[in-house]
Amino acid sequence: MENARISQWLILLVCALLLLISEASYVPITIVQNAVAKGAVCLDGSPPAYHFDRGFGSGINNWLVAFEGGGWCNNVTTCLARKTNRLGSSKQMAKLIAFSGILNNREMFNPDFYNWNRIKVRYCDGSSFTGDVEAVNPVTKLHFRGGRIFNAVMEDLLAKGMKNARNAIISGCSAGGLTSVLHCDRFRALLPRGARVKCLSDAGYFINGKDVLGEQHIEQYFSQVVATHGSARNLPQSCTSRLSPRLCFFPQYLVSRITTPIFFVNAAYDSWQIKNILAPGVADPEGHWHSCKLDINNCSPDQLDLMQGFRTEFLRAITVLGNSSSKGMFIDSCYAHCQTEMQETWLRSDSPELKKTTIAKAVADWFYERRPFHQIDCPYPCNPTCHNRVFDPQDDHPGKNVTAKGTSDASATKPNFPKLTNKAQWIELVCISRGISGLLLTLVLLNKMK
After folding, report:
1. pTM, entire model
2. What residues act catalytically?
3. Domains of the chain (ranges plus CATH)?
């Protein structure tokens, strides 16, 4: 009996040590039950949710609110498809998700924000938190209430201490990165006047570009999103007072009017935009771009030329930011999508760099006004520090053009069972099982993951 107890303590000690060297932590879900009474619900009518890791020490009054990505739904059919998974229902969300990168709670992995209050707002409305349609179709029972979700979550966080914030950031990746743009000034208005409040958009600078056939497929798509969700009322009035609401879904038409400081982390060859704006399935019915979109190393010279043209178009669209120190940018030449919430691209020994500066350093220096950062990388393939995405073949086929794939969301598609995709998850599994054989197996697996 005594030997068994010593063995259990030994396993727990080893687990604790392994968790200390892992690159992610796990944070439980918070369901905002009182949001239902306000009509602030997911597509299926379930309450919204977020994950909250409380700040400590000097970061106790600092807040980082990150919005999850996951594409959009542009009509009843595509919204119904999301209604039964985590992108449309909090009932299907994982109860634990990994916090890494800018959400990491360890100083060595996230030196400037590790002890802040860090929140990941789950995405279940399909409109970058802009929708607000009162009527609910009795047949589909779809709720288009993303704008209300934003308000309800903010109210909940303000009540939990965010109203006393001294420093605050609204951020997000992909569709969440667009959320941080569309709600940037609104977020600022919620917080104390004397607080330092800024916005960070990761892979959220979607451009109104033409596809390989010369068509503006993405403009039509965003127009359908705005119409389906009734988004116009929640888009920045500084844009809708001048332009059609469908255009106000594109950052290039509104960032010059954003008054709150904002920083953009984006790849000039954003893999989602290459796959869905430059070469969507509707413009490539024969699948000539299939292999190229999965891995940029497979692209032909002609395809690379078109991608260089897309980069030129992207840089032209982002020049509206100007050179103001309040508006920063880290535009690398990687084939990537979402870089702030993955440890390997946020801050690690081999992370992407511009001017010998990591994304973590650039964002922190800009936020704390240590120095401005306004860097654009040279053309592909000039940057040897890039982490270029290589997609699984199933991630690209007709019917999956504008999808949730490609975001850095760490939650699983099934509730309660996170995907075992990094070291921390394997360690967690073993620590729960507390088995010697399981621990040995995991050590072998961790060695293979290096």
Report:
1. 0.86
2. 174, 270, 337
3. 24-419 (3.40.50)
